[in-house]
Amino acid sequence: MSQQSGFNVAVVGATGAVGQQMIQTLVKENFPYKKLLLLSSSRSAGQKIVVNGEEYTVQEAKPESFEGIDIALFSAGGSVSKELAPEAVKRGAIVVDNTSAFRMDADKPLVVPEVNETDLHQHTGIIANPNCSTIQMVVALEPIRQKFGLKKVIVSTYQAVSGAGAKAVQELMDQTKSILANEPVEPKILPVGSDKNHYQIAFNAIPQIDKFQENGFTFEEMKMINETKKIMHLPELAVSATCVRLPVAVGHSESVYFEIDQENVSADEIKALLKDAPGVILQDDPEDQVYPMPANCVGSNDVFVGRIRKDLDEDQGFHMWVVSDNLLKGAAWNSVQIAQSLVKLGLVKEK
Amino acid sequence: MSQQSGFNVAVVGATGAVGQQMIQTLVKENFPYKKLLLLSSSRSAGQKIVVNGEEYTVQEAKPESFEGIDIALFSAGGSVSKELAPEAVKRGAIVVDNTSAFRMDADKPLVVPEVNETDLHQHTGIIANPNCSTIQMVVALEPIRQKFGLKKVIVSTYQAVSGAGAKAVQELMDQTKSILANEPVEPKILPVGSDKNHYQIAFNAIPQIDKFQENGFTFEEMKMINETKKIMHLPELAVSATCVRLPVAVGHSESVYFEIDQENVSADEIKALLKDAPGVILQDDPEDQVYPMPANCVGSNDVFVGRIRKDLDEDQGFHMWVVSDNLLKGAAWNSVQIAQSLVKLGLVKEK
């Protein structure tokens, strides 16, 4: 890669589960960077990370860190984004933020390139990357909305622990070993590190992701509900969600029921649409037991869709099963993809 | 227990995961048996089983085995039931059958005592025990139907591997050990022992339980749909299901969306109903992170319900999370409970 042309890119939260994937994705997707700045909290600063054969030292993220940066990918928690994203913008960077800090701000685009790439034109410095479980669902729903309209969505999720960070994956593995050895487990992180109680995730299912809201839904469920409406430009869409954490390391799955606007549409028409949809891999052949599973999606940027079938009672109702790598399309890849779109649309200039 | 009074009880499939639970449940619930006959295939015959301190030798199930038997609990697969249940009835036994062999026969009651105990009066010798995932759902839905009516149900399940038998549990544990040791796995049983392909269940989620039907739904999904309508006497109820196998040993969970007939009902009214419902334990306190989980339900006969909340768009729509021990209320306990009901209703006579 030439040192003369390309963009100055910063990754904030470079030592985290998503940050690591962001760095790998920038390399794998040949993102045109000329400088890569790896930033973290003071606690992780000083760590060495090898990127594409070159060793980088992680530096503490400070307002001054963003001098000369063109694009900053943030994934270090909402409070870091709230503090430092405006500082990065003040210094001329465009921020792609993978936290919930700015997602519902009316003046900040919330973008999944396959769905609403053109919203990037309205950006004012910060672009929000949606919640992982929202992204994979809207990628599968958008081609359906475009052709047949969309009235209602009811989703139940089957989410991997890596969505709660690298330490949660370690907790799953440690607990699993303990249980296999008939030793007691001491949950410390899941379901929510900062919540009061922690529960066993190994060989269990926990119907809580993020904290509970006043209305009985969790924040994760409200993210899916509100972000879907915003990304798809469907404020009147009926959406509901039940979000559940599973003993799976990587790969979110979703059982999605949806109702379209048109009558007399067949499951085969939905399948034909999704077969050619951007970012989607159709895996739908019940006869040969072909359907998506988290164990098969790890490491892929795509959204896998299968088990598409028409509801037996509601002519406009359908069911499908949507799986994707929550660290890639759900986070790192979608962020890098937004950066690619910014370059393609001429919305970011090299310094 | 007196040898003089009580019933002669046979357990067919005594060495299987459910059969073992049936025997334990007969003892734990003080079912009034005077003779206990443990039957199995010729392959498992000869095994010794200690019940309540007494050693029993498992015998091969044959038509003649049922001479003098009052109640026969079957859980040895559909083909065994089809062959031997009529033979047992011919010899004067009442059969409680925990397979799918007779569930949809119009002349055979399909019974969950909390819901339709009085259907037992119509029996003609064979009573069917419903599918595990159906039972726990209808126990939670019935009190709601009674008070508010029921129009529609959309369920996504999170099912434990023990529903596929003791060998499937062993497969989960063996695969888990292999993956933790970075060794390859060789799936042989799940998702369906007799189907063509087998997939990894450890740290994965498989959206297939039982074989696929022509309409794209699996047989497990169709069982939930058809059995729910039959048990609840609601042939017009709109029901749909997506059934998913998880790396959980025991305990099925269900994300249930349902619509009632009445308007302006609150989630608190639904909670109040379920708090006093037979067979139900309400675990619903989001503020203190109280909700049901499979790891906490193992060994209990009850159905645990939580996360009850009103849909944000549909006034008559609600969501809930239903968990139960699939080997107990889902199988062994419901079968023994049916036997108890037969005794209580005077429908079985001691020989």
Structure description:
- Two copies of one chain form a homodimer.
- Chain A has 351 residues and is α/β, with parallel strands linked by helices.
- Chain A folds into two domains: 137 residues, 3-Layer(aba) Sandwich (Rossmann fold), CATH 3.40.50.720; 193 residues, Dihydrodipicolinate Reductase, domain 2.
- In chain A, 30% of the residues lie in helices and 21% in strands.
- The first copy, chain A, is built from nine helices and 14 strands.
- In chain A, the strands form three sheets. Chain A has a six-stranded parallel beta sheet, sandwiched between helices.
- In chain A, helix 8 links the parallel strand 12 and strand 13.
- Chain A is globular and about 60 Å long.
- Chain A starts with 6 loop residues before the first strand and ends in a 7-residue tail after the last helix.
- In chain A, 56% of the residues are buried.
- The interface between A and B is large, with 59 and 59 residues.
- Chains A, B: Homodimer.
- Chains A, B: Keywords: Amino-acid biosynthesis, Diaminopimelate biosynthesis, Lysine biosynthesis, Methionine biosynthesis, NADP, Oxidoreductase, Threonine biosynthesis.
- Chains A, B: This is Aspartate-semialdehyde dehydrogenase.
- Chains A, B: GO terms for molecular function: aspartate-semialdehyde dehydrogenase activity; NAD binding; NADP binding; protein dimerization activity.
- Chains A, B: One of its GO terms (biological process) is isoleucine biosynthetic process.
